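Homework help board

Subject: predicted structure for assignment chain

Our instructor gave us this sequence and asked us to write out the predicted structure in token form, then describe one feature. I got the tokens but I'm not sure how to describe them. Can anyone check?
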Amino acid sequence: MNTYLKFGILMTLIVGSLVWLAVGGVSDTKTYYKTIPELQQMGNAAQSHRLRVGGDVQPGSIVKTGTQVNFTLHQGATRLNVVYTGTDPLPDTFRDNAQALADGHLGSDGVFQANKIQAKCASKYEAKPAQKGISHDAPTQKISNLRAPIQ
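My token output:
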């Protein structure tokens, strides 16, 4: 067999394998952000996809049992029970009323099985209120005794 033909076949296999791995990797890491009502409208189709679901953490719903954390996300009147069994520690901002994103799969029992949690505490990002007695528009004073530069 010709050396160039062997090299061409080998290169085709290598490039083809890399393309296959890239396409497979992109489809595995692709996730969609869904609201709880959108997740519920998906029905059984939601069980076959990796999803990200967002909502607010229901006050008093966080229960830690060993490495597992159970909590409830809500948006208005809709609720979603979530079980987190990931290996990463929960964010410091994960607490009652925090906005959270759960990344995982919807189980057949309707409980969302999360392997990653992202949280944001809205009050942490609000602007500080202005303090009384401090004026931010104080007039600047000129310094009149400036020396001339040495030449």
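Reply (TA_rk): Your tokens look well-formed. For the description, you could write something like this. The chain has two helices and seven strands. That's the kind of observation they're looking for.
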